[in-house]
Write a structure and sequence with these properties.
The complex is a heterodimer of chains A (401) and B (426). With 401 residues, chain A is of the alpha/beta class. Chain A has one domain (13-112, 153-398): Thiolase/Chalcone synthase (Peroxisomal Thiolase, Chain A, domain 1), CATH 3.40.47.10. Helices cover 36% and strands 18% of the residues of chain A. Chain A has helices at 28-36, 67-71, 75-91, 97-100, 116-127, 135-143, 148-152, 156-165, 177-193, 211-218, 254-259, 283-294, 314-323, 333-337, 344-358; strands at residues 13-22, 25-26, 52-53, 104-108, 172-175, 199-206, 242-243, 245-253, 266-274, 302-306, 330-332, 380-386, 392-398. In chain A, the strands form two sheets. In chain A, strands 1, 2, 4, 5, 6, 8, 9, 10, 11, 12 and 13 form an eleven-stranded mixed β-sheet that branches. Chain A has a two-stranded parallel sheet with strand order 3-7. In chain A, helix 13 links the parallel strand 10 (302-306) and strand 11 (330-332). In chain A, helix 3 (75-91) packs across helix 8 (156-165) and helix 12 crosses helix 13. The longest helix of chain A is centred in the first third of the chain and has 17 residues, at 75-91. The radius of gyration of chain A is 21 Å and the shape is globular. Chain B folds into two domains: 14-110 and 150-422, Peroxisomal Thiolase, Chain A, domain 1, CATH 3.40.47; 114-148, no CATH class. Helix content of chain B is 33%, strand content 18%. Chain B has helices at 28-36, 71-90, 113-123, 131-138, 144-149, 154-163, 178-191, 209-217, 256-261, 290-303, 321-335, 348-351, 358-372, and strands spanning 13-22, 25-26, 43-44, 57-58, 102-106, 170-173, 197-204, 247-255, 268-275, 312-314, 344-345, 374-375, 398-399, 404-411, 415-422. In chain B, the strands form three sheets. In chain B, strands 1, 2, 5, 6, 7, 8, 9, 10, 11, 14 and 15 form an eleven-stranded mixed β-sheet that branches. In chain B, strands 3-4 form a two-stranded antiparallel ribbon. Chain B has a two-stranded antiparallel ribbon with strand order 12-13. The longest helix of chain B is centred in the first third of the chain and has 20 residues, at 71-90. The chains are: A alpha/beta (401), B alpha/beta (426). Strand 5 of chain A pairs antiparallel with strand 6 of chain B, so a sheet runs across the interface.
Chain lengths: 401, 426
């Protein structure tokens, strides 16, 4: 691979593979059908009072054939390794060791799944007076499964993808909630555009059915409680419902795709991101406006797919931005998928590329006036991510006709 | 030093500022003096009770107080100190206004035991504690600060605000190769022409009971507890594991052109970087060494040089039986007979394994090696391993003519990254 100098024209990048496993099912057809049927899989009971979007049943064996590999992972890694396999299948590169051995990988990851029983057992024993020095050590030494650590390490989703699917060109893991999702794709695209990489697997996975994760967001009162409501109608009770899911994309240079006869879903034209300090009202609105202007020219048939969280004040700030761009059909993935943090932006890109390849925007799923029907085939979709606490990102995905 | 672009036509990337904190001390001057004196920063842990632990020593940083302690707070403090030193040396931008992006290698962030204990106390001893009870007492704003503190992006957010870096700050983990990956991302951004400068920081303050126990349960840690300073024995026959340590390294990278234009002092050149993932096992390297060999070759090729031009290798050298053996296999496969002559030393013999920070800490030490023309030793090397016939610069620093250094980093999850650093553009 010859890296081009920095001043040459950006190399065109295509999305040639999509892997999706979410609360709505697995695979592209299942998702397309669910989206157009306005299906929502929200569970108000299992984690009550918290609402979550649980992973639809999937057969992990189909993408992770060795049970031993599955046992070495916690749920978030299994979901991600599974979705990554779907993306490689979709791109037609599964098992192609020539390509996989030079395929770059950037994963956006959280991590740290805990053994809730061990944690609770220790706290109970301590509450009953077991406070000797070394008590914590003794319990952890005896009760932690040695391999749990590997299921907690952020970079071990990428590690598992390398082991199970053989993607070994490079392996990088970005952390940092929603921003990790758009930065992972942003860097993958920048490398391809500059000739630093020919083909990349990029994506993320999230297990929303975790009380230890609910805890982190409960500290900030970010969890949606009691009753599900679409993202745009949470004025009375702001917050997000955690969603389980994995979204991976294969992105490659047009030349690389054409040389191997790969069919594109869409063109990934550009991704921009910023980090507003959010100290004053309106900062997110103006940051989104500035990212919008950096994305480049927009065609008539534009739609927006946003990962708006439902958390405040950021969701209201994003609505103010959207109001300044009226008549553009908007879809919020948080409504039907829940909020999948690192995975939300890759998920938005995945459904954007899917929509462009199917020549239609999927149906609105919202009782507010925010989402309108789109009758014509979209030529471009802008994917937006504004993190619940930090991070603003935006991507332009275009139809290839 | 005239060419602003390298052999591949890309902007040459130079280093104009460096900062470092380790268990040996704060700052380049202290660290370099102690490193060359062969001192160890490994000590018996006093931060928390060690009863029941197989390993009771670490390269903790206790001279920087963090109260109440959390690994994430310490990581943030260490990153801050190293970055202040690097930015001040570079003299770039103005206070709180760094003209480029931030790439931060940081350990995965999570809630820690002191916070869990605090929640347990709020629930009280009359109620059976489980996560539902913990959740019940966590909302309403009483623990709002823990949301911000234990987000994965929180340390990067703090640095971005303090130093005024531009754009979306990237937090990354490639396990024990993280520091090298942060530098690699900076090099790539400058080569793409996206930025004239980048701030690459790596930090780790992970010595807490659970983190230590996790590595201990994987049998990765040395148990040579007494005396602690003799615990890390890279490449020696009696090596028995790595020793956890804390630290941070920070580097200001700039395009050569931008650095020259503003009259900055050039500390060294980031001539090349390479990586390659290993799909063999979650914690072990492929027995054939191919991923390590490929990684080293990728770095050489990226720098546009051949193995013969490397005159010092700053090893990953953790002191685990497995790593050191595999590192020898990898290096000897690429360097051939020269693998026995070229100096290969491990800073970790003195500072311990600073985990997420190691790649950047060791890049700083590699640049200091170039600056001072002196190679820090591998200490605790009393029993050579005949299977690893490296010249490890045993026990005493050595003056040498060093123009080109390779610094290796390997990590769990099949992570391999190598950097090539030079005094002058190649």
């Amino acid at each position: 691979m010859t890296e081009t100098s920095s001043r040459s024209k950006p190399i065109e990048a295509w999305i040639t593979g999509i892997g999706l496993a979410t609360s709505l099912g697995e695979g592209l057809d299942a998702h397309w059908e669910a989206l157009n049927q306005r299906r929502i899989n929200a569970d108000e009971k299992s984690f009550a009072p918290y609402v979550v979007h649980p992973l639809a049943p999937v057969s992990f064996d189909a993408q992770i054939p060795k049970k031993g590999d599955q046992r070495q992972m916690e749920a978030w890694q299994r979901i991600g390794t599974y979705a990554a396999g779907l993306a490689l299948d979709s791109a037609g590169v599964k098992g192609n060791t020539d390509i996989l051995s030079r395929m770059d990988m950037i994963v956006a990851a959280g991590g740290g799944e805990r053994d809730l029983v061990v944690d609770a057992g220790i706290l109970n024993a301590e509450a009953k007076g077991n406070a000797a020095p070394g008590f914590l050590n003794e319990r952890l030494m005896n009760e932690l499964r040695p391999t749990l650590f590997l299921a907690q390490l952020s970079n071990l989703l990428a590690g598992n993808i390398a082991i199970v699917h053989g993607v070994t060109g490079s392996s990088r893991t970005f952390m940092g909630e929603e921003a990790a999702g758009f930065d992972a794709v942003r860097i993958a695209l920048a490398r391809i555009a500059a000739g630093q990489s020919d083909i990349a697997l990029v994506g993320a996975a999230h297990n929303g059915e975790r009380k230890d994760l609910l805890l982190l967001y409960e500290f900030g009162d970010f969890n949606l409680k009691e009753k599900f409501a679409p993202v745009w109608t949470r004025e009375q009770s702001s917050g997000f419902a955690l969603g389980s899911g994995g979204a991976f994309l294969v992105i490659e240079s047009r030349a690389h795709a054409e040389a191997r006869g790969a069919k594109p879903f869409a063109r990934l034209t550009s991704i921009v991101a910023d980090h507003a300090r959010r100290k004053r009202p309106g900062e997110v609105t103006s940051t989104l406006e500035s990212l919008w202007s950096k994305l480049g020219s927009r065609a008539e048939a534009t739609a927006i797919i946003t990962g708006a969280t439902g958390a405040e004040p950021v969701t209201s700030e994003e609505r103010a931005f959207l109001r300044a761009h009226p008549d553009i059909p908007v879809r919020a993935t948080g409504t039907m998928f829940g909020h999948a943090l690192e995975a939300q932006f890759p998920l938005g890109l995945a459904v954007a590329a899917l929509s462009l390849s199917r020549g239609a925007l999927f149906a609105p799923d919202d009782s507010s006036d925010q989402e309108i029907e789109m009758s014509e085939p979209p030529a471009q979709i802008v994917v937006i991510g504004a993190g619940h606490w930090r991070g603003e990102g935006m991507a332009l995905v275009e139809a290839i006709r | 030093m005239t060419a602003m672009r390298d052999k591949s036509g890309r902007p040459v990337v130079v280093v104009t500022g460096m900062g470092v904190v380790t268990s040996l001390g704060s700052g380049k001057t202290d660290n370099w003096a102690r490193l060359c004196a062969g001192e160890s920063g490994i000590r018996t842990i006093t931060r928390f009770p060690t009863e029941g632990l197989r390993t009771t020593m670490a390269g903790t940083i206790d001279f920087i107080p963090v109260e109440p302690f959390s690994s994430t707070d310490l990581s943030e403090r260490l990153a801050n100190i190293a970055t202040e030193e690097a930015v001040a040396q570079a003299g770039i931008g103005s206070a709180g206004d760094f003209p480029g992006p931030l790439f931060l290698a940081v350990a995965p962030v999570e809630l820690e035991w002191p916070q869990r204990h605090e929640l347990g106390r709020v629930i009280g001893s009359d109620t059976e504690i489980d996560y539902d009870q913990i959740l019940r007492v966590s909302g309403g704003g009483a623990f709002k600060k823990y949301h911000r503190r234990f987000l994965f992006g929180s340390v990067a957010d703090h640095l971005a605000e303090t130093f005024g870096t531009k754009g979306s700050p990237i937090s990354l983990s490639t396990a024990c190769a993280s520091g090298a990956t942060a530098i690699q991302l900076g090099i790539e951004a400058i080569r793409r022409g996206e930025a004239d400068a980048a701030l690459c920081v790596a930090t780790d303050g992970s010595v807490n009971p659970e983190a230590l126990i996790r590595f201990s349960l994987l049998s990765a840690l040395s148990t040579h507890n007494d005396p602690p300073h003799a615990a890390v024995r890279p490449f020696a026959k009696n090596r028995d594991g790595f020793v956890m340590a804390e630290g941070a390294g920070a580097l200001v990278l700039e395009s050569y052109e931008a650095a020259v234009a503003r009259g900055a002092k050039i500390l060294g050149v980031m001539a090349g970087c390479g990586e390659l993932a290993d799909s063999f096992h979650r914690t072990r390297s492929s027995p054939d060494g191919k991923p390590i060999i490929g990684c080293v070759r990728n770095a050489l090729s990226d720098a546009g040089i051949v193995a013969d031009q490397i005159d010092y290798i700053n090893a990953h050298g953790t002191g685990t039986p497995e790593n050191d053996k595999m590192e020898y296999l990898g290096i000897s496969s690429v360097f051939g007979e020269r693998a026995k002559q070229i100096p290969v030393s491990s800073n970790k013999s003195m500072v311990g394994h600073t985990l997420s920070a190691a790649g950047a800490v060791e890049a700083v030490f590699s640049l200091l090696t170039l600056e001072h023309q002196r190679i820090p030793p591998t200490i605790n090397y009393d029993v050579p391993d005949p299977a690893i016939p490296f010249d490890v610069v045993p026990n005493a620093a050595r003056d040498a003519c060093v123009t080109t250094v390779m610094s290796n980093s390997f990590g769990f999850g099949g992570q391999n990254a190598s950097l090539i650093l030079t005094r002058e553009p190649v």
